[in-house]
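During the reporting period the student researcher (J.K.) took over the structure-prediction task from the postdoctoral fellow and processed the backlog of single-chain submissions. One of the processed entries is reproduced below for the supervisory committee.
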Amino acid sequence: MIAETGHYALVLALGLALIQSIVPLIGARLRDPALMNVARSTALAQLVFCGASFVALVVLHVTSDFSVANVYENSHSMKPLIYKITGVWGNHEGSMLLWVSILSLFGGLVAAFGNNLPLSLRAHVLSVQAWVASAFYLFILITSNPFLRLANPPIEGRDLNPVLQDVGLAVHPPMLYLGYVGFSISFSFAIAALIEGRIDAAWARWVRPWTLMAWIFLTLGIAMGSYWAYYELGWGGWWFWDPVENASLMPWLAGTALLHSALVMEKRNALKVWTILLSILTFSLSLLGTFLVRSGVLTSVHAFATDPTRGVFILLILCVFIGGSLSLYAARASSLKQGGLFAPISREGSLVLNNLFLTTACATVLVGTLYPLGLEVLTGEKISVGAPFFNLTFGPLFVPLLIAVPFGPMLAWKRGDLLGAAQRLLAAGIGALLVLALVWAWAHGGSALAPPAIALAVFVILGSLTDLVERFGLFRVPFATALRRARGLPRSVWGTAFAHAGLGIALIGIVCETTWNSEYIGTMKPDDVARVAGYELKLDDLFQRQGPNYREMIAQFDVSRDGRAVSTMTPSKRSFTTRGASTTEAALLTRGASQLYVSLGDATAEGAIAVRIYHKPFVLLIWWGPVLMAFGGVLSLSDRRLRVGAPKPARIQPHLQAAE
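J.K. obtained the following structure tokens:
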């Protein structure tokens, strides 16, 4: 009965989405407030019914109802509870239900907290949101129904893919989807503005918090996915330029450009047409990522193996929304009035430069991802575009961008003083040069480009701090005055500084890990010793252990350095008999921001086992950086000037009305 209730709730959500997509548009055309307000009530009701459908699927997984095909294919009665829950979105059908649930959540949030929006704009935004939701409700109900029953229910399930039985799965997909789907609000605002034919600085102020919220979640989702691949897959890497990884990176790059473009539009009423285009492209890239993962055109640990029918359906959705929105943009963009002018050397100019490099980098990743697929379709030839291509094209685009990042906040709006900004950044530049000299003196081996890259990262970090110091006058005014000014700074200023510093921190981690990574790869028997980066790892024992739904072989390593015991590491290999598959559980030893990494391979007939041991200097900075960037986004979002539910203007007091 729970499955039927969940299915029926999904059908009702589709019906509500269809009403929401049509009636408010009619109301906006007729200027009828009652019809326009239908968007708000239907969006909230749609959220309730879609949420109920998702909860029903969670209950089916938790109770191990194997009469439902989705539960049978992706669960097992002996599986730990947390993996029963996360298994809901560890498959195609469940992940699509999560996708559309988050879509309805954002629509519900706009309905609940969008009271400060003009009534016609809110009606149009929620209608466009309902168009997207209706398409995906139909997709789920027609091709990917998660509530299908089996005629002859089995006693036991097939279990979830062992690679996905990890705590990271509880965080990574929901975060990623909150980012992907969150950009649908920016898309809906853009289409609503094109329909109304009116866009101004107020529009940018309304859309920026939603874009920032999606960007925060997508940043955390990408970082969590990278860390999950790093420790779960056992290969020791953190980014592979996998097409599905690229599918999440592209909307992040476009979304970052959109955030900066919307800022120019809000402050200077400029870049209107460009901001609208970025709003459309960012969500279009999110839809493209959905297609790549679920169409069956890719083979990846991240991708869902699906039948061609689903791929064609998603491709149709892709064509309708991307093609339709770009057609509307082409028809209406010329009628939008351009905003204020500004000099090339200005804060607006620096943000335009930011947009130029970000969108070019995004286009580079797009070409590298889609070119092999297009070539295979046209010629049948299979080629691989991997890390060398992306490193050679993506990296050089980010160097000038990183050089420009500290200058942006230092420049004035409309017309800036580049020489003055350079003078204020002199201390940051000197600090970067000192770091360059120290790294060159300390480093042994590795790329000659590594020290300059670290110096550039330090310049970005120190430049962010310089902006704060300049704003509250540290070293120029009494400390108490500087402290008071620091407390009075808008949170968005602090957020910008943290986000830019996070970018530099991540770059330091990337350069150090890729340049000075040490490794040992070989076979070991008990009492053998491996030496890596000054550490000695002695294989003390190999033993077996039975888990809830797997059998595990564990290796115990005693780690020492300079003759002193440091810790014990216990990597393992797990065999899941139900699925007939195995996973590698790497052991991590954290020392500051660096890590010692051990993963196991296959055992040999002689009683030895293949071992991979890595020492990764400052590797954790790769993920601390994005976390700091997301924290900066949260600070900016909490700024009262950028709050999602901005207060309404105060009502005129009765005695003032009487005086009028």
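The committee noted the following: Residues 586 and 599 are 5 Å apart (CA to CA).
J.K. will present the remaining backlog at the next meeting.
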